[in-house]
């Protein structure tokens, strides 16, 4: 019989600390390796240009729209009104007094600059992240509502409700989200807006067709999560509630759903994190969410490394925040 060889571990050796240090070494080594690889391509990093894609101050030039002469400059507080009169027409322009570069009696031609002023603007990335948050938040709320009702219909004894829910779930889960977005925008969107136009009503912006496609896509997956959560609760819970005189609806809302909610939180969090990342597909229908905004910024700045890294970091912040919020809800429901 051969004894199994064992590696002697020195006394006082802290395995936990060792593996933590090993993780840090691997992380630093990976980052250094990537940095070294970029130096081999002669790439010049321009991180100092990133802030302007979140916020910048633009110098706006006020240009004359008529040809004539400056007849008066009247100051009103910090601003002044410049009046330019031409042949039978006149225009007035309001701008900060400090930015005026003409004087009374100056000859003005169409397109001449009368003055300048500073205007604060949000950059492409900030605009993109705000649209991503808006789209994702609305789609998540609608997806929860749609998924809840569809999940309940999925386990209903009513054949019409059950078959309708099954058809919706299988149809949505069996087709790619990108195809659904295209159908919503180019087919359903065109039909709906054409009908609204014939009735003399307002047109629905493409943003809402994008939200609808995401919400309906998420609703199908949420429905299956809800169904699985409800069916994981023992049937005796419903039977006990009914024996106490509760109706089926009351028992479902008071007894079954609260217990199921604790079990479906983790898969729901995963689904909504995926939804935030799936919102990047809305760029194909001209919605300037974060990914499309980054792509436009890369095209104009030729800074692919910095901007795509920043894009990934912003998505990570969104998904990590949602994950932490769900973990907080899990702890609260566990304590309840």
TrEMBL record:
Domain ABC transmembrane type-1: 129-326
Record Gene3D superfamilies: MetI-like (1.10.3720.10)
A family per Pfam: BPD_transp_1
Signal peptide: none
InterPro entries associated with the record: AA_ABC_transptr_permease_3TM, ArtM/GltK/GlnP/TcyL/YhdX-like, MetI-like, MetI-like_sf
Keyword DNA repair in record: no
Major subcellular location class: membrane
Known role: Part of the binding-protein-dependent transport system for glutamine; probably responsible for the translocation of the substrate across the membrane.
Protein family per UniProt: Belongs to the binding-protein-dependent transport system permease family. HisMQ subfamily.
UniProt-listed NCBIfam families: HEQRo_perm_3TM
Descriptive protein name: ABC transporter permease
């Amino acid at each position: 019989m051969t004894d199994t060889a064992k590696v002697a571990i020195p006394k006082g050796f802290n395995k936990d600390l060792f593996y933590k240090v090993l993780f840090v070494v691997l992380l630093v080594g990976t980052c250094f390796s990537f940095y070294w690889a970029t130096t081999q391509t002669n790439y010049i990093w321009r991180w100092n240009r990133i802030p302007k894609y979140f916020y910048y101050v633009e110098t706006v030039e006020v240009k004359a729209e008529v040809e004539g002469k400056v007849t008066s400059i009247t100051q009103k507080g910090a601003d002044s009104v410049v009046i330019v009169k031409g042949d039978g027409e006149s225009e007035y322009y309001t701008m900060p007094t400090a930015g005026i570069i003409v004087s009374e009696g100056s000859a003005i031609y169409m397109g001449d600059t009368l003055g300048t002023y500073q205007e604060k603007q949000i950059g492409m990335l900030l605009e993109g992240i705000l649209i991503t948050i808006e789209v994702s938040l609305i789609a998540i709320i609608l997806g929860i509502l749609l998924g809840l009702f569809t999940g309940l219909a999925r386990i209903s004894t009513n054949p019409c409700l059950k078959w309708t829910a099954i058809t919706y779930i299988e149809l949505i889960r069996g087709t790619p989200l990108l195809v659904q977005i295209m159908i919503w925008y180019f087919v359903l969107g065109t039909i709906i807006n054409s009908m609204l136009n014939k009735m003399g009503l307002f047109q629905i912006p493409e943003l809402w067709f994008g939200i609808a496609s995401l919400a309906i896509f998420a609703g199908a997956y949420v429905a299956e999560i809800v169904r699985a959560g409800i069916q994981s609760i023992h049937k005796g819970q419903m039977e006990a509630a009914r024996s106490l005189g509760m109706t089926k609806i009351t028992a479902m809302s008071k007894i079954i759903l609260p217990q199921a909610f604790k079990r479906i939180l983790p898969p729901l969090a995963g689904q909504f994190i995926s939804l935030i990342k799936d919102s990047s597909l809305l760029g194909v229908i001209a919605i300037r969410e974060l990914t499309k905004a980054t792509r436009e910024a890369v095209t104009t700045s030729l800074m692919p490394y910095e901007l795509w890294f920043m894009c990934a970091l912003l998505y990570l912040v969104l998904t990590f925040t949602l994950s932490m919020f769900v973990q907080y809800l899990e702890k609260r429901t566990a304590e309840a």
